[in-house]
Amino acid sequence: MNHLTDEQLTQWLEGEDSPQTQSHLAGCAQCRTEAQELRDGISRYAIAMRRQADRAQSLCLAGQFAPQKALARHRLRWAAATALALLLATPTAWIWMKMPHRPLVELQPIATARSSPQSAAAMSDDELLEAVNNDLNREVPQALAPVSAITTERNRIAAASAVAAIPSNLSAK
Amino acid sequence: MEETLTVPGISASGWTAAEFDDIVRQHQARIYRVLWCELRDDEAAATLTQDCFLKAYRGRSEFRGEASVSTWLVRIAVNLARDYQRNRRQSFWRRLLGSNAREAELATGVAEDTAPRADRALLAREQLQRTMEAVKSLSPQQQTAFHLRFLEELSIEEVAEAMGIGIGTVKSHLSRAVNALRQQRNKS
Fold first, then answer.
1. CB within 8 Å: A9 and B182
2. Which residues, numbered 52 to 111 in chain B, qualify as contacts with chain A under a Cβ-Cβ cut-off of 8 Å?
3. Does the beta carbon of A39 lie under 8 angstroms from any beta carbon of chain B?
4. What is the pTM of this model?
5. Where are chain A's structural domains?
């Protein structure tokens, strides 16, 4: 018994099979099984390839848009950081503006300001000269004057205490 | 089968950009699939899909409406795939490793998708594997004819038009494919 040729099977797959092919398939279990397996195999292959191609295309499309998404995320992060910075800066600035301000440095001339409670303009020439002279004759720098005063005072108290502690008989000697 | 856009009696050069955008939207999935089946390379298929439409747009004055837009685009895609494969022949290892990994993935995926039971899954996988082996043993031209006919479901005439060959040659390629499938079946 001659089984179906490749051409006949191809025609059967195309749906253009002849009556002879049909009658052969009806009577030959071997060819029938082979033809059905062939059709199933092609069908499975087509489904698998289509599915895989569609999946690959979806991934490619996703990949194409990925840089834009990354850029959007990057911009969003910057926007969030800016908003947070503004949120923190605004109340800080408001509090700072509401606080009473004192000049950090007195702009009056040091010599006159520190040596006299009077302003330089209110001083007479003689008073101003004396103040400057006092400053120039100062033993410690202006910045250390308070410390120097404390030290002097402490030494004075210590000396007074020491004198008080000496027995009278020794002091008489 | 996808609906094809035919423009009888209107030359393609008359298409507006918006009309061409519609053509791209309508056909890009098929063109990608054709290229992907030819190359089995996701990125290359994506790149060549863009090239295909660019080439079609530039050469739109050559389209006379004798064939469907779909067949015309498939023809451009097939030619692009041929050129690409010719240039890629040097990268032997990439082709070998890539195709093996992809086919294993493909076989596993379809078995899981189409056959829920374990024995049916095994059967489906074996059948798919055999078909893949058979298709792989075909020449590039035979593979293209097989894919266009059975995956894209183009008619024999459309396959001939898309490949730029005669109808008899297409039938011969398909017959050779059937022969390869039979041999592969008898081997196992």
1. yes
2. 102, 105-107, 109-110
3. no
4. 0.59
5. 6-63, 110-172
